[in-house]
């Protein structure tokens, strides 16, 4: 993904800790206000996360009760990933499952994400740009509003950024420790959001270092391998639980086959659609069997008409990246009186505008400033990249469907291609681009919803702070006499 060598030395070890602390306070205050003032009864998926957390906190495990023959029978779950409910259950057990417990926990989680964005950014860029990355994350409207939602994305984002920072911190002096700690973070995050495990290979970028290509690849593979194995070992006890109490084995959860079928069914629109028994799985006896049935149906639908399935990819990416509406919809569902349609529309406009601006700046994080003294080829290439970003922004604004998803694709392309005159790209930027690629790929295969991009909004904040840096080609131009 364009990562060059090992991680750079942090920009400044001195006052940056104080700046990180100040960022935490700022981010926490903003998120606490939203969490306390706006949070209500959890709705949509949040209802199930909250219910699961209550059951775990009560010592009943990840489960519900079903009535069989007039008697209540304990019924285990694993349809949704357990990680977020298990995380909340810790705090429910200590502080009680009151209406503000989960939102306050989310506020603290979001503030920690901001701190880690700043700490990781120090390995990617200058002191001031790293601080800008932290401020972008602290002040992002979508991330602030999300504190009031009982949803998984902030915790998943925390694990994603933490894994990168842990490897970056120890890459030069204690790479084994960094890989093990990153594996721990990645494993716990996999229990929250299973597809996070896909970023494990990119953690190898941080320890590739200098030397021959073979030596660099070997060191990178060792780090990625240790991280991946550690993460899997963290998850395996939960897998063993599923094999023991469910109707079959499931690595983390049983919504993968379900989601594949949603994105491939003859009624697929590119976003969530409710599956019905009449769609194919009429008789199932358990969650694992149901998931496998929908997986088989999804694969059959794809095989029957692969062209139609591929034609849905732009729609899926559009639903994922074109707008930011989910937080407003959630708040309106939880408290309709406080969120009439006009207020929700204003909120959607604000969140979408800030999201699109962030997406565009993140794409420019892989583009060098065309100003200054550059070789002609480098100048033209970077100017073309800049115009591509601006062109897609303009097209998104003017087109009826407002497609901004190509900006996410540009981030991946700019990060992967060796474009002449590109700004410096190290292990951190390679990891960030890889993270964006995993989200785009996941939802191109399954289906899209705008809440899914929230996991990488902190990543976009960091990339946005890198926008239009000087080109590395400038150093190759001899100064004028």
Describe this structure in words.
This protein is an all-alpha fold. It has one domain. It has 19 helices and two strands. A two-stranded antiparallel sheet has the order 1-2. A hairpin with a 2-residue loop joins strand 1 and strand 2. Helix 2 packs across helix 3, helix 7 packs antiparallel against helix 8 and helix 16 packs antiparallel against helix 17.
Briefly say what this structure is.
It is built from 19 helices and two strands. It is an all-alpha fold and 481 residues long.
Please give the radius of gyration in angstroms. Answer: 23 Å
The backbone outline, from C-alpha atoms, is: globular
Q: What is the β-strand count?
A: 2
Mean pLDDT: 94
| Helix fraction bin | 55-70%
Beta-strand share of residues = under 5%
Across the major sheet, the strand order is 1-2
Organism: Polyangium spumosum
Subcellular location: Cell membrane
Keywords: Cell membrane, Glycosyltransferase, Membrane, Transferase, Transmembrane, Transmembrane helix
Domain Glycosyltransferase RgtA/B/C/D-like: 83-238
Characteristics of this structure?
single chain, 19 helices, disordered N terminus, membrane, 481 residues, mainly alpha, RgtA/B/C-like, glycosyltransferase, two-stranded antiparallel ribbon, disordered C terminus
